[in-house]
Here is the input.
Amino acid sequence: MQEQWLKIDKVLRQRFHPDEREPRLQLLIRKVLDGEDLSADEAREAMLILMEGRPSDYEIAAFLMAYRLKPRLLPEELAGFASVMREKAEKLPLPAVMERLSDTCGTGCDKSNSFNVSTTVMFVLAGAGIPVAKHGNRGITSGCGSADVLEALGVRIDMTPEKAAECLTEVGVTFLFAPNFHKATKNVQPIRRALKQLFDEGTGDFGQLRYGTIFNLLGPLSNPAPVKRQLLGVFDEQLTELMAGALKLLGAERAMCVCGAGEGMLRMDEFSTIGRTHVTELRDGALHSRDYSPEQFGFQPATADDLRGGDKEESAKILRDILSGEERGARRDVVLLNAGAAIYICGDAVPSIADGIEMARAVIESGKALEKLDDLIRISNT
Here is the structure.
């Protein structure tokens, strides 16, 4: 790790001016590079330093890359980071009756090039009567993020907290655009994009690593709304138990953290219909892990091409075609599977994923899911 760090640090010092403004953050970076774990309090301290905009660009990049190289992450570290992001986020003015909310956010970074499955699922979940506060951003590791596709559909993504709360109370679904709610992270975003460019260029040892930073994991954990139930997708099956453990520490009631088979060695941050899906479920305060196959739910195995997305206009068409019933092939199947899991974990109406799938199918065929999309477009622009 140390040898690899020396090569990466050389690139960072060339790309970013190596100012060292924050000695405490430097000490925490060194601790991580020495193979030690941060305590929950130290993780909170590091995130507070980042959120307050005190470090230099080099120090931010060094922190992100030190954690990128860290061989083991702890739920306590992620929960410590995410708790600060939640505290610093803009809050939604919600009535108490809206406090049991759900989310279908994923980490990205899976490189599967699939369409926006979890964004499609949010409308099926809302159509089933389960309130959804979808947390998301523009694509950083993918060509079309949830914000991109919703914007192409006509949803106003840069809503104020008051407007986002209005959509949630009137429609039962809203979108929380991460930069609008996590304004304290604005100094981190340019560094993330610059690091992404280094990965894409394959500069030095960057070319041997798969892109992703700690913020890809923190996005799904830092919903500014009081989300208690969650279907969370990750890009590596070794992360499902870690993320479920972090959600437990953050106060989640129920959750499923999933990683599905993609093409070759790649994975999907969704339930997959290409192959098996590894799942860690948080239920009754305990974590339970198991694998699922698409066949056990009656779905034919798909291919990566079957689930491929496109730019934001094409992705918007795919999403609307699924909700309107025009798309009835493999793309609809993967939405039904993920929506079924979301209905099972986020609601109280069904006892199993299989029952959730049947409810999801009924919601789409009734037109309720499409109605939720159209209502969100209308209210968000009012």
